[in-house]
């Protein structure tokens, strides 16, 4: 980027003019010890919990433990230059990050500073990272969908705007893939996305950013990156920085989506800080307030009503609701969902998507276990057409699972049972979907309609995926207007005849009979 | 781990309560200063570091060095500190005692740093201004710190009033680099 000299001298001039110089009055203390980024400061008698502390050389810390004669603080960033006896000052401020639309398309660290090498962010506003979630009066029930573009999820575990849906699974089960597909699918929905990468490899983060760029999804996305090499304090804080950036959109009557990838690592970073601060360890050596760590974070995902938006935007936005949908990710160890952090987050969220290694290895991707994945509030937000068609899918899969276990003992099966088994197999096959290929509501409706109404019963199981692709191509080529009409007004009653006609016409081509 | 000052606090407040009851604040202040001098003596430090000396030996040694300079109650304090293995908190006990004494007498110590030596007149004005602000009698301890370039910096307890050129330069640097 080219530097403009006049710009800089103007900037300095304005800064000098606005600088009020007078006697400053501050509370100060001295560094007593510094271990692994945790600093004990003697003095600072007026320090407040969560206050920013100023260290020499523009380093900042966060007061976390207030004790009788000293303060325990974490240092945000580099701490090698701080030594025993250094003077520490109170700032009277709480940690803030920049917010606003200027952040869209950027990759920032936990403090909101750009790390993508594209110059400074022209954000005019900033906000504190620790805030109390909107109260009951400010809220509205979830009633609009977030389309993930994944058939399996949108049909069986629908997500509503303002909902918190946990994505949980072992390593290498496609958790991030679900999240990235969801972001890519928000290109036209107007939902702003925030992807918070916590404790991941820099290379993984770079991959996600590159994929988002390739699919044109960075324009509506903010990436908050706290990689594995950043200090634990920043990994712990990055989730709160991200949610603050998301709240800006919610407060201004827009819809936003935040993905925490992943909260297990955030809890581990917090555990490290807590243990170094000598807070007593509890279960799995986590401190006593790990539940609060996640509950206060996820509670900030909400759908808020028109009055709240008007108040939060200071009257600038009227008559609009805002939402912040949360998709926390938890990585389990060997499928153990009864560990401390998974159980906590399962109980906080409004549903969960279980991804399983066995399914993933069997080629069922997304590897969602439909039996134990639920969405507790999303049903109210599902589009009419998918809601009505999706019921059949859930039922077919549930019956299939029951019969599949049972049928292993019986050699010959009656006609009805055999049909249910075959339907189940085809539905399972149909739920497979390639990565980075999100589907529109109409495409999903067509595929589900076809399997529900027996058009695929004659198709060989291995051919189901091909059949679906051909059907979609056929519809796109010959019934483009009808497909657009379904997307515009996704109601089953109005379009059932169209769906039937597309399927019948496709069958009539004879490609799969 | 608790800090020494936290450990010293109950001893200091105990001593202070006793001294106040007996009306001997000044005497105790002197005795504590004397005890600290004894404790900090290199010979005494070497003896304390000697592992062959038992606590009883240390107590005998310490009290014999102090001799008639301290009264019975102060001898008891020394005995208590040694038996509880808290002799190293003696410095903090004295500091806290002095702070409590100053609080009782409504006096605060102020560390006044100036770039150049100041006149008595200037110091008087400064002290009056500070006294009006903290509502106490201010006992200034003036030090010349050329690094300040100009102006004055006052520290009372944890609070610092910075009206020095150095402080203003620092805040300007922060404002410009932010």
Profile the largest sheet of chain B: 4 strands, mixed
Work out the radius of gyration of chain B: 21 Å
What value does the average pLDDT of chain A take? 92
Report helical residue fraction of chain A. 25-40%
Question: What's the helical proportion of residues of chain B?
Answer: 55-70%
| Main beta sheet strand tally, sense and closure of chain A | 9 strands, mixed
- The first-to-last residue Cα distance of chain B is 37 Å
Determine the number of helices of chain B (DSSP H or I, runs of at least 4 residues): 8
CATH fold field value of the largest domain in chain B? Peroxidase, domain 1
| Mean pLDDT across residues of chain B | 89
Describe this protein's structure.
The complex is a heterodimer of chains A (513) and B (178). Chain A contains 16 helices and 19 strands. Chain A is of the alpha/beta class and 513 residues long. In chain A, the strands form 4 sheets. In chain A, strands 8, 12, 13, 14, 15, 16, 17, 18 and 19 form a 9-stranded mixed β-sheet that branches. In chain A, a hairpin with a 3-residue loop joins strand 3 (51-55) and strand 4. Chain A is elongated, with a radius of gyration of 26 Å. The termini of chain A are far apart. Chain B has 178 residues and is α+β, with helices and mostly antiparallel strands. Chain B has 2 domains: 4-103, N-terminal domain of the delta subunit of the F1F0-ATP synthase (Peroxidase, domain 1); 107-176, Glutaredoxin (3-Layer(aba) Sandwich). In chain B, helix 2 runs antiparallel to helix 6 and helix 4 (55-66) packs antiparallel against helix 5 (72-83). Chain A binds chain B through residues 12, 15-16, 18-19, 21-29, 32, 42-46, 58, 68-70, 89, and chain B through 3, 5-6, 9, 155, 157-163, 167-168, 171-172, 174-177. Strand 1 (24-35) of chain A pairs antiparallel with strand 4 of chain B, so a sheet runs across the interface.
Features:
heterodimer, A: 513 residues, alpha/beta, nine-stranded mixed sheet, six-stranded antiparallel β-barrel, 16 helices, 39% helix, B: 178 residues, alpha+beta, Peroxidase, domain 1, Glutaredoxin, 2 domains, four-stranded mixed sheet, 4 strands
């Amino acid at each position: 980027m080219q530097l403009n000299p006049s710009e800089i001298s103007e900037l300095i001039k304005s800064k000098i003019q606005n600088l009020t110089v007078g006697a400053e009055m501050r509370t100060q203390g001295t560094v007593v010890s510094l271990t692994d980024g945790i600093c004990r400061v003697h003095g600072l008698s007026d320090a407040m919990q969560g206050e920013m502390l100023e260290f020499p050389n523009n380093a900042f810390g966060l007061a976390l433990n207030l004790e009788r004669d000293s303060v325990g603080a974490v240092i945000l960033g580099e701490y090698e230059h701080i030594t025993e006896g250094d003077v520490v000052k109170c700032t009277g401020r709480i940690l803030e990050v920049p917010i606003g639309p200027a952040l869209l398309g950027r990759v920032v660290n936990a403090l909101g500073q750009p790390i993508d090498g594209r110059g400074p962010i022209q954000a005019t506003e900033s906000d504190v990272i620790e805030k109390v979630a909107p109260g009951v009066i400010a809220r509205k029930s979830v009633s609009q969908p977030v389309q993930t573009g994944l058939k399996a999820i949108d049909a069986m575990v629908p997500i509503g705007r303002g909902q918190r849906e946990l994505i949980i699974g072992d390593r290498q089960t496609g958790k991030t893939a679900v999240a990235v597909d969801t972001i890519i699918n928000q290109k036209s929905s107007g939902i702003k996305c925030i992807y918070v990468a916590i404790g991941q490899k820099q290379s993984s983060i770079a991959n996600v950013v590159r994929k988002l760029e390739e699919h044109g999804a960075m324009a509506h996305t903010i990436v908050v990156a706290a990689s594995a090499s950043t200090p634990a304090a920043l990994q712990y804080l990055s989730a709160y920085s991200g949610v603050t950036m998301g709240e800006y959109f919610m407060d201004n009557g827009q819809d936003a989506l935040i993905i925490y990838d992943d909260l297990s690592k955030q809890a581990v970073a917090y555990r490290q800080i807590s243990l170094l601060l000598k807070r007593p360890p509890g279960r799995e050596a986590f401190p006593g307030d790990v539940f609060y760590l996640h509950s206060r974070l996820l509670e900030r995902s909400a759908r808020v009503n028109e009055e709240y938006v008007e108040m939060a935007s200071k009257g600038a936005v009227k008559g609009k609701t805002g939402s912040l949908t949360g998709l926390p990710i938890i990585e389990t160890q060997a499928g153990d969902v009864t560990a401390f952090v998974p159980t906590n987050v399962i109980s906080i969220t409004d549903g969960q998507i279980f991804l399983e290694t066995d399914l993933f290895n069997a080629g069922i991707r997304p590897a969602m276990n439909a039996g134990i994945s639920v969405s507790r509030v999303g049903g109210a937000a599902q589009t009419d057409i998918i809601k009505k068609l999706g019921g059949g899918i859930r039922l077919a899969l549930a019956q299939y699972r029951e019969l599949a276990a049972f049928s292993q003992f019986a050699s010959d099966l009656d006609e009805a049972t055999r049909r249910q088994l075959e339907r189940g197999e085809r539905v399972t096959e149909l739920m497979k979907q390639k990565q980075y290929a999100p589907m529109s509501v109409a495409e999903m409706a067509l595929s589900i309609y076809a399997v529900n109404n027996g058009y695929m019963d004659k198709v060989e199981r291995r051919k189901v995926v091909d059949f679906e692709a051909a059907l979609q191509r056929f519809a796109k080529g010959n019934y483009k207007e009808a497909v657009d009409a379904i997307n515009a007004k996704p109601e089953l009653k109005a379009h059932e005849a169209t769906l039937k006609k597309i399927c019948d016409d496709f069958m009539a081509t004879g490609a799969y009979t | 781990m608790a800090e020494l000052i936290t450990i010293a606090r109950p001893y200091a407040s105990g001593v202070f309560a006793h001294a106040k009851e007996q009306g001997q604040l000044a005497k105790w202040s002197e005795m504590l200063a004397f005890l600290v001098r004894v404790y900090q003596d290199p010979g005494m430090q070497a003896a304390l570091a000697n592992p062959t000396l038992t606590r009883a030996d240390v107590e005998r040694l310490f009290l014999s060095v102090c001799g008639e300079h301290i009264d019975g109650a102060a001898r008891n304090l020394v005995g208590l500190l040694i038996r509880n293995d808290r002799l190293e908190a003696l410095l903090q006990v004295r500091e806290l005692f002095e702070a409590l004494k100053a609080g009782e007498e409504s006096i605060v110590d102020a560390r006044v740093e100036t770039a150049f030596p100041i006149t008595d007149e200037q110091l008087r004005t400064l002290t009056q201004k500070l006294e009006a602000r903290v509502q106490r009698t201010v006992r200034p301890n003036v030090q010349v710190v050329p690094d300040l370039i100009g102006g004055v910096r006052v520290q009372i307890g944890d609070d610092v009033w910075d009206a020095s050129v150095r402080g203003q330069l620092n805040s300007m640097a922060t404002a410009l680099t932010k």
